[in-house]
């Protein structure tokens, strides 16, 4: 049992540590990141309940609608809502890259508890596949969501556009991911290149966020110098 729990938790913690340690300026308080991770984990319960009701009542009969609404929109909206209401206005969200950290944290909290339930049900032999696909994809959806939230918070214009993209982009990517799994018999042939694209996009957004943070911190330093 301990080995199974460890296998379920390890991928999420490893991915979160990676993005957390890439913060080159003021590292986020561990307590705040852990709290965000817990918020994400707690989302599993209401989302699983709503999805169970949808399934039992056969609300969605189309694979397309199920992938994009029952799964993608429901999960990404709740994660986005937590970030927007609790994290976005917080004093510790003080540079663009912080969106990456908190986006990854809330998504990996969700993915980690979901992974524990999945492996408890189907066995540890699924641990590697779960780490490579569902856990990693959730992390990258969170990174992309966090990038746009960070860009929106620290942009002087077009804040509404960036906030809309922070939900719309992970929603479309997540829906596409689930649609591939639900509809294609040889899904592995399509999900591997999709995951490569997702990693490319997620790492690109993380790099862009670090550049934005560097510019933002430099501008703060210049302001202090000019008015100090």
Describe this structure in words.
- The protein is mostly helical and 228 residues long.
- The chain has one domain (2-219).
- Helices cover 83% and strands 0% of the residues.
- It is built from eight helices and no strands.
- The chain has helices at residues 2-21, 30-42, 44-56, 63-87, 98-122, 127-154, 159-183, 187-227.
- Helix 6 (127-154) runs parallel beside helix 8 (187-227).
- The longest helix is centred in the C-terminal third of the chain and has 41 residues, at 187-227.
- It is globular, with a radius of gyration of 18 Å.
End-to-end CA span: 59 Å
Low-confidence stretches: none
Radius of gyration: 18 Å
By DSSP, the count of extended strands is: 0
Spell out the helices and strands N to C: HHHHHHHH
Instruction: Describe the oligomeric state of these chains in a short phrase.
Output: single chain
Please identify the structural class as seen in this structure: mainly alpha
- From the spread of the alpha carbons, the general shape counts as globular
Keywords: Cell membrane, Hydrolase, Membrane, Metalloprotease, Protease, Transmembrane, Transmembrane helix
Transmembrane segments: 6-21, 33-54, 66-88, 100-120, 132-150, 186-203
InterPro entries: Peptidase_PrsW_arch/bac, PrsW
Organism: Cytobacillus stercorigallinarum
């Amino acid at each position: 049992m301990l080995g199974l729990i460890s296998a379920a938790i390890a991928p999420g913690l490893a991915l979160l540590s990676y993005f957390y340690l890439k913060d080159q300026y003021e590292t986020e308080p561990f307590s705040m990141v852990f709290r965000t991770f817990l918020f994400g984990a707690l989302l599993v319960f209401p989302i699983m309940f709503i999805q169970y009701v949808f399934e039992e009542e056969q609300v969605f009969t189309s694979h397309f609608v199920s992938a994009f609404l029952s799964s993608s929109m429901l999960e990404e909206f709740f994660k986005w809502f937590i970030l927007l209401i609790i994290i976005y206005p917080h004093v510790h969200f003080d540079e663009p890259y912080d969106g990456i950290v908190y986006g990854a944290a809330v998504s990996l909290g969700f993915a980690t508890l979901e992974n524990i339930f999945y492996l408890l049900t189907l066995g540890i032999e699924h641990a590697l596949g779960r780490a490579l696909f569902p856990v990693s994809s959730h992390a990258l959806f969170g990174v992309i969501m966090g990038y746009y939230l960070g860009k929106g918070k620290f942009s002087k214009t077009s804040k509404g556009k960036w906030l809309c993209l922070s939900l719309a982009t992970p929603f479309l990517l997540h829906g596409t991911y689930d649609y591939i799994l639900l509809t294609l018999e040889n899904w592995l042939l399509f999900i591997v290149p999709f995951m490569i694209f997702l990693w490319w996009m997620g790492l690109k957004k993380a790099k862009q966020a670090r550049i934005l943070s560097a510019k933002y911190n430099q501008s703060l330093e210049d302001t202090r110098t000019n008015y100090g």
